[in-house]
Design goal:
7 strands; Sulfotransferase; alpha/beta; binds 3'-phosphate-adenosine-5'-diphosphate; EC 2.8.2.-; globular
Length: about 325
């Protein structure tokens, strides 16, 4: 059985707390626990708590924060390539993205660094700027993230495509021979906010509001914009994280090279992403499905679309946020 489906051992420190939290049946093997208003699988929750308590952000840190299934893998590849472009000028010859999955190159705080029971990782030796990623909601970030000048690049995606991507992903990760999650049940769960790091809308809203208050600290992005104007958005990200492209680089085609290297077509066809697995057991290929905007209309009924649109309008429109 892959690790991500195995019973997870929680340290004594967090066992008592977790047992007091509201609990729901999860989308995979583990239960979901509601902490600070958001739902986390057991394996992730220990990491959430530990990271919240122990992670010490530095002014120079860059944090990729995403709503699950909104293009995390893609954004990790973009920013990794951006920050390392001087080190690997020949992008199609010896670049780490050609042989390593983006999740290996930019690990999650709560799922990778802080996952181990009773172990606080030593991250101070990582050269600056340190690049981390997380699905943590705004309210659960470690205080140091808010107190320092570290930068947050936040990515989300329209809720219909996010939901369909999540539904496919979790069914793909189920053990062969076990029952798939039905679209209807999963849809109800998602609408009720009971999804990975859900409610979806609260996650987005937490970062949206802060990005309006502190645009130099939080850059708010949508998957749809990355698809529509990749070169424009990549240059925006480069400026935001403090490594803008020079005129020479633009003339030499560095922006286009990064986009090509990180494209769905290129990444999904690499051997490492067709055959490899994360250390927690998820196949790399599960992170590359179709990579399109609007694919959800091939799965959702008209009623489902109306329902999700209505929730989104009700929760987000008053804050000036639309998808
Ligand atoms: P995670 O939050 O579990 O890390 P994440 O990478 O956010 O997953 O989501 C995967 C989605 O991003 C998939 O969407 P889909 O199910 O609608 O197809 C995946 O195909 C898409 N994706 C992954 N890499 C790329 C890429 N290079 N370009 C565009 N989309 C991508």
């Amino acid at each position: 059985m892959p690790k991500y489906l195995q019973e997870f051992e929680v340290s004594q420190e967090y066992k008592d707390l977790i047992s007091t939290l509201p609990m729901e049946k999860g989308w995979l093997a583990s239960h979901l626990h509601q902490y600070q208003g958001f739902w986390h699988i057991t394996r992730q929750l220990q990491g959430v708590l530990s990271c919240q308590k122990h992670f010490n952000a530095l002014n120079s840190d860059i944090l990729i924060v995403t709503n699950p299934k909104s293009g995390t893998t893609w954004l990790k590849a973009w920013i990794f390539a951006l920050l390392n472009r001087k080190k690997y000028p020949k992008m199609f010859q010896n670049h780490p993205l050609l042989t390593k999955n983006p999740h290996f190159l930019v690990p999650f705080l709560e799922l990778d660094f802080y996952k181990d029971k009773d172990l606080v990782p030593e991250l101070s030796t990582i050269p600056s700027p340190r690049l981390f990623s997380t699905h943590l909601p705004y309210v659960s970030l470690s205080k140091s993230v808010l107190d320092t000048d570290c930068k947050i690049v936040y990515l989300c995606r329209n809720p219909k495509d996010t939901f369909i991507s999540l539904w496919h992903f979790t069914n793909k990760l189920k053990m062969e021979g076990t029952c798939a999650n039905s679209l209807e049940d999963s849809f109800e769960k998602f609408c009720n906010g009971v999804s990975l790091c859900g409610p979806f809308w609260d996650h987005v809203l937490g970062y949206w509001k802060k990005s309006l208050e502190e645009p130099k600290k939080i850059m708010f992005m949508r998957y749809e914009e990355m698809k529509k104007s990749p070169s424009f958005v990549l240059k925006q990200v480069a400026r935001f994280v403090g490594c803008p492209f020079s005129k020479e680089e633009e003339d030499e085609g560095v922006v286009d090279d990064i986009l090509k290297l990180c494209s769905f077509k290129n990444l999904s066809n690499l051997e490492v992403n067709k055959k490899g697995k994360l250390s927690s057991g998820e196949e790399h290929s599960a992170f590359f499905r179709c990579g399109k905007v609007g694919d959800s209309k091939n799965y959702l009924t008209t009623e489902m679309i109306e329902k999700l649109d209505a929730i989104t309008e009700k929760k987000l429109a008053q804050h000036g946020l639309r998808f």
